Amino acid sequence: MTGIDSVQLEKVIVHKIGNPSRGEELKLSENALTLNDEIVKDLLTKYFLGAFNENELYHFTHLSDLQMNEVYRYVAAIFEDRESFLEQAAYLARFLYTKSTHVKVKEGELYVVLFDNVPFEGEYIQALGIFKSETKESFLKVFPHGQSYEVIHEEGVNINKMDKGCLVFRTNTVEGFKVCVVDSTNKNNDAQYWVEEFLQVTPYADSYHHTDKVLSLCKQFITNEYPEKFDVSKSDQIDLLNRSMDYFKSKENFSMQEFADEVMHHPEVVDTFMDYKKNFEQSRNFEITDEFAIHVSA
């Protein structure tokens, strides 16, 4: 996320979230952090916001009633009444704890942060961040000691690597807000508790997501399905990938039929691609529309 120099950290509280299936505890803080050091505040702001892509937007959802989405309800309460921040942050921590039972869920610190003056879609608005730090890294601290130096080992958080994060912008309240999500420790989809079970968010069906999903579909098809179903060489794969990328670079609007005809060429390849697309959509619970405006940032 860019342009964060103006962002103000209004409130920050940290809770410890264990994995109840391993007997790890939930430890709630009673008070928010006292942040008087401007350097620390700047580092925290970079850590919290640096990993987000504000073009990739989600919204809270629920099968029956949006008000039954716990995270949405707690966040909305904070936006309505800042004085409820500590209470609602504790509710968020308790709810996350109940969703942290998967064997691969790691213990970590939960940060709940109220921001002000956050740049978003041409405005400066309020936002609430929910972040979980699961990974500790080793580093060496070198310091003078008498006429020499000492070196000690410590563990801490890498401010350039956000494990799990959610940034909720105070806009589009009725539709479930506009939300950015980070889940960098779940590349293999082993434990979908953060996005699916805790946050319960779904992508906005906008041009960015459609462009991003079709690009991902094409790359996976060309890498995995295409060489498996057809007798093609590596250079054939590269050629098809280049034609796919050229299509997105040269067009303003995407048409699935036009893409299939111009890029895939052969009817049997087109049919295989369309079948792969159906499986791709089902596995991700996301339907790709046949026509949309291409987003250049995807």
Give a quick rundown of the structure:
It is built from eight helices and twelve strands. It is an alpha+beta fold and 298 residues long. Helix 2 (70-80) packs antiparallel against helix 3 (85-98), helix 5 (207-229) crosses helix 8 and helix 6 crosses helix 7 (256-264).
List the helices and strands and how they pair.
Blueprint lengths: L7 E10 L8 E2 L10 H12 L8 E3 L9 H11 L4 H14 L9 E13 L2 E11 L3 E9 L2 E9 L7 E6 L8 E6 L9 H7 L1 E3 L3 H23 L4 H17 L2 E3 H9 L2 H18 L6 E3 L5
Antiparallel strand pairs: 1-2, 1-4, 3-10, 4-5, 5-8, 6-7, 8-9, 11-12
Helix pairs in contact: 2-3, 5-6, 5-8, 6-7
How would you describe this structure to a colleague?
This protein has 298 residues and is an alpha+beta fold. It has two domains: 8-204, no CATH class; 208-293, no CATH class. 37% of the residues lie in helices and 26% in strands. It contains eight helices and twelve strands. The protein has helices at residues 38-49, 70-80, 85-98, 193-199, 207-229, 234-250, 256-264, 267-284; strands at 8-17, 26-27, 58-60, 108-120, 123-133, 137-145, 148-156, 164-169, 178-183, 201-203, 253-255, 291-293. The strands form four sheets. The chain has a six-stranded antiparallel beta sheet, sandwiched between helices. Strands 3-10 form a two-stranded antiparallel ribbon. Strands 6-7 form a two-stranded antiparallel sheet. Helix 5 crosses helix 8. It is globular. The mean pLDDT is 91.
